[in-house]
Amino acid sequence: MSSVSQKAKRITTHTLSKMKKEGEKISMLTAYDYSMASIVDAAGIEVILVGDSASNVMAGHETTLPITLDQMIYHAQSVIRAVKKSLVVVDLPFGCYQGDSYMALESAVRIMKESEAHAVKLEGGAQVSKSIKRILSAGIPVMGHLGLIPQSIYKFGTYTVRAKKEAEAEQLLSDAKLLEELGCFGVVLEKIPNKLSKTVTESINIPTIGIGAGSHVDGQVLVIHDMLGMNKEFSPRFLRRYADLNTVMTDAIKGYIKDVKSQDFPSEAEQY
Q: Are residues 169 and 267 in the same domain?
């Protein structure tokens, strides 16, 4: 566990700012339910993201777009009940903030009040600045998200690396500086060149959390189903699998089926 984490009863946005200043990397993972969040929190992770990726890994949708605000609040409630130390950040789902700053505030307030989460995250830069300002005006911490923004997948039509061209890279850097100026406490950088993420990280004072953004960011985030090897179909370059739970779970289930069929389970010791 990190030295900063050991000193703090609860990880806060201030903790993350201090970690960046001291050069200590920030660890972040997703979680969507009580049992998984209990394990992740107890292991010492600094930040848990209740991501709209629940739309994919929990509900089986092709994109993050279908998940609703009510569903995000449900997942956040489940996670919060388990967490004792981690900072819990919740994604604002698609359609809750893009076009109406008052709707953005209402959505963020609902997440904070109904789930008791600690912060919200939303995608985009200048185009959502009014929504960010409105949410921050209520005292709600906001994390930004730049680069590949999955909620805009149908606009871009691909999940390939973003900001390879100079104009897009300059816009991303400008947006990162704007997010800091507006008051965001951090920003996720997704699938952008390592060189650009280094420039962004060195150009702003708020922490950068990378996913497919190289090693020069202030921290890393992965979807927990991916890093634990529960999902075998998703294999981008940036993903490191720390376990093969798909195989472990499949073997366990097959063993259970075998024992039920052979009447080996339950044994005498497993009966009342």
A: no
On whether both 165 and 269 belong to a single domain, the answer is no
Radius of gyration of the chain measured on its C-alpha atoms: 20
**Residue 190 maps to which CATH number?**
3.20.20.60
Same structural domain for residues 116 and 62? yes
**Cα–Cα distance for residue pair 11/118, rounded to 1 Å:** 10
**In a structure prediction context, what are the per-residue pLDDT tens digits for the chain, which is 272 residues long?**
454 444 448 999 999 999 999 999 999 999 999 999 999 999 999 999 999 999 999 999 999 999 999 999 999 999 999 999 999 999 999 999 998 999 999 999 999 999 999 999 999 999 999 999 999 999 999 999 999 998 887 777 767 889 999 999 999 999 999 999 999 999 999 999 999 999 999 999 999 999 999 999 999 999 999 999 999 888 899 999 999 999 999 999 999 999 999 999 999 999 99
Phi, psi for residue 222 in degrees, rounded to 5: -135, 155
pTM over 0.70: yes
Q: Active-site residue numbers?
A: 190
Q: Are strands 119-121 and 87-91 parallel, antiparallel or unpaired?
A: parallel
Identify the domain containing residue 250 by its residue range: 244-272
Per-residue DSSP letter, 266: S
